[in-house]
Design goal:
heterodimer; A: 63 residues; mainly alpha; 0% strand; B: 256 residues
């Protein structure tokens, strides 16, 4: 362990703001992008399903 | 089967979006799992266990996110350049899909490299930003990532769009080389490379271990993200094919 106490760990020798802001921004933005990927993937799949259903019903009408 | 035959078989299979989708689905949990393990280990050791730097104190711990983000952003652009080559010369469909999948996270990583670099620069150099070769060429990398995607979106026909984006990626690789050697070619406030392929790395193992773990972790995370994004792109492009329709209708419990 490089730190003696939790307070020391948070303070980072007076540079806590820079260290924790860096890690925070990286974590938060990557997490946000992962959520976006998931939502986007689901939306694309839903669109394809709707497209298939629409084509199936059109095919039914024309018969 | 000879080695050459096996290689060409995999080239053709992975070049086919449908087969790639299958491989990606099978490999994804492993790649994502390894990414999480490596990043937890690297960032955990880097924040908690690695010793203080004798010059920079604790602010240097930003290295464990700044260097992986920067190197992965540069590698991502190199990979887009390779995709560009495959698109322009062989019109390979999978290269078009991968180029599109690599770009967004590379853009984010380039931005994160600049932000974490600024937050490291303030306590170390006393300034968030200087217009020197390394920082400026990294800003150019971010703009190139944005330009490739803008160009891709601006061209209507997807295959023409991929050719345009591929060409810009291939040309933009020159900037990756400039970023790499900027600290050697010009006087820079930025420190020299910590990791060296040739020659001695001066970092002690207690710092080098978390750096390498987080670097490989970032590569695996990037790979997992590219696979997820590529899978979505594949089902969209193949939306009229039977295998996609059957797969999606099965998941929706329609007519099964």
């Amino acid at each position: 362990m490089a730190f003696d106490s939790v307070a020391d760990f948070i303070a980072m020798g007076g540079h806590g703001v820079f260290v924790w802001l860096s890690y925070g921004i990286v974590f938060f933005s990557i997490a946000l992008y992962l959520v976006h990927l998931r939502v986007f993937g689901k939306r694309v799949e839903r669109q394809i399903r709707q497209l298939a259903e629409r084509e199936a019903s059109q095919a039914g009408e024309s018969q | 089967m000879s080695v050459m035959k096996t290689l060409t078989m995999y080239y053709h299979r992975l070049g086919s979006p449908r087969f790639f989708y299958g491989y990606a689905t099978r490999w994804l949990p492993w790649i994502a799992g390894i990414a999480v393990l490596l990043l937890v280990a690297g960032w955990g050791l880097g924040l908690l266990v690695a010793p203080e730097d004798y010059q920079q104190g604790n602010s240097y711990r930003i290295i464990f996110i700044h260097v992986p983000a920067s190197i992965a952003a540069l590698s991502g652009f190199m990979a887009m350049g390779v995709c560009g080559l495959f698109i322009l010369v062989w019109r390979m469909k999978m290269a078009e899909i991968l180029l599109k999948a690599i770009a967004p996270f590379g853009t984010l990583l380039a931005a994160l490299s600049l932000i974490t670099g600024a937050l490291w620069g303030k306590p170390t150099w006393g300034t968030y930003w200087v217009w020197d070769a390394r920082l400026t060429s990294m800003l150019v990398l971010l703009f190139l990532y944005i330009a490739v995607q803008a160009l891709h979106n601006a061209v209507r026909d997807p295959r023409q769009a991929a050719r345009a984006a591929g060409l810009l990626s291939l040309v933009g690789v020159i900037n990756v080389v400039i970023v790499k050697y900027s600290v050697d070619w010009w006087f820079s406030l930025h420190q020299g490379s910590t990791l060296k392929i040739i020659g001695e790395t001066t970092m002690p193992w207690s710092m080098l271990t978390p750096l390498l773990l987080s670097l490989f972790g970032m590569y695996f995370l990037y790979a997992a993200i590219v696979l997820v994004r590529a899978k979505t792109e594949i089902v969209w492009r193949e939306r009229r094919s039977n295998w996609v329709r059957q797969m999606l209708s099965g998941r929706n419990h329609h007519g099964v």
